[in-house]
UniProtKB/TrEMBL annotation:
Entry-linked InterPro entries: Aldolase_class_II_sugar_metab, Aldolase_II/adducin_N, Aldolase_II/adducin_N_sf
Provenance organism: Saccharopolyspora rhizosphaerae
Domain Class II aldolase/adducin N-terminal: from-to ranges: 11-184
SMART domains per UniProt: Aldolase_II (SM01007)
Gene3D superfamilies: Class II aldolase/adducin N-terminal domain
Listed GO CC annotations: cytosol
PANTHER family, A to Z: 3-OXO-TETRONATE 4-PHOSPHATE DECARBOXYLASE-RELATED, FUCULOSE PHOSPHATE ALDOLASE
Molecular function as annotated in GO: aldehyde-lyase activity; metal ion binding
Protein name: Class II aldolase/adducin family protein
This protein's record includes keyword Heme: no
Segments passing through the bilayer: none
Amino acid sequence: MSAVRLAEERDEVIDIARRMTSDRLVVGTSGNVSVRAGDLVAVTPSGVEYDQLRTADIPLVDLSGEVVEGELAPTSELPMHLTAYTEHGAGAVVHTHSLQATALSLLRDEVPAVHYQLADYGGAVRVADYATFGTPALAKSMSKALRDRNGCILRNHGTVTIGGTLTKAYNRARQLEWLCELWLTAAKLGDPALLSDAELEHCATLFAGYGQTPR
């Protein structure tokens, strides 16, 4: 039996998809995950329970959306994923249907600056205008909200986060859910205090050097 192409990437897609379920960022088969390797993208298939997925079940598509390997059809949200790769230089994409972020999208046009962690997204996270799932219109709306950002919220729908790696994109999805829950919790009791744009910009500069220094 021949080796499965991009097995490591495809297994990582499965792992993150299952984590979305365990972390309660999706219900059932909602949401989707992808990672780019050169000119190919490994992406979750449409309508398959994540705990049933095997390596070969993860479709490989090219940047035009053509399936080059795999028997299962890719997610219906493939246009969003490909747009994130071709227009925003993403290395990986995570799309969730997380509760708190979707709830905030019904009330706001962006995530209020309640915490400096928003600096990791490049500034205020925007809420994209609503469009029907799986359509080019949704991909276009997402792209507009994602400009100069590492994440956005889709109104009445969910979130999209990107990163150089799938782990980074997923951590941003989790963090975005927490940021939305923080604002929603505080807003129940009053008018939350917000950070200034200048402070977010300052924090973004600090984030650029955050972490361990290579030896």
